[in-house]
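User: What would this chain look like folded?
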Amino acid sequence: MNAEEEAVFQVIRGFYKPKGFEVTRIEASDVEKRPDAEIRGDSELALVEIKTKWDAENEAEKRHLAFERNDVYFRQSRIVKSNTHAGVIRDAARQLNAMLPEGPHFRVAWVKFDGPFADSIKIRFRSTLYGIRRVADLGSGTGYDCHDFDDSAFYRWRAVLDAVVLESSNELHLCLNDFSPRYESFRGSKIASVLSGGINDPMEMERSGLILRVDGSANRRNDGTKLAYLREKYGLAHLSVLDLLETVVEIRVPDEGTMTRPTS
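Assistant: Here's the prediction, encoded as structure tokens.
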């Protein structure tokens, strides 16, 4: 483990050790990639792969250069799934699949976000997990997160991933994969219950009216056919895709007496 992963490991241990679970590192192999840790207790076992996701280096550099020039840093992007994040999830799933312990077990990725835009990157990562697009009923003006509108990483890795923990500096979410064949058993497990305050359960969220969802039976040919399916399923005649734009504008305010003239 590198230093960032070791810090996450200690966070995991801090959650589970007081509840009577044993949290141990898995020895690295020169031959194959393996998960980083395991959580064991009360006849339950979960393999854990740790990933640390920082802001893109090029954006961090752009931000730094803007501040050095006393310029405004500006960034604008759509909040949709990311191929980069899909690659992180793919790597985690492959490492979790590299070990097959005897007996029932769960497989979880734990992703820590850091940097000045950690929370917004975490939202985009969650969109990649669940294939989320933002839709709105133009009749009522109500907006919804629609799961599985785009291809989801959870569906792609349903045989491997039972859940993904998304951690940032101020909150933690346990995102359940309801496509997993172990969904019911993991949702009811003691391992999941330790993080029960932050559980994201798509089936429960849909039942509560918090999200919409494109089911597997839908015609997924294009956005239009998926919207037609959603309009009929939920009785929302004026439903449209309304992707949100994240706009970041920052300027560094120097200490008194240190301000310099902006460069041209």
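The chain has a mean pLDDT of 86. If you want, I can go into more detail on any region.
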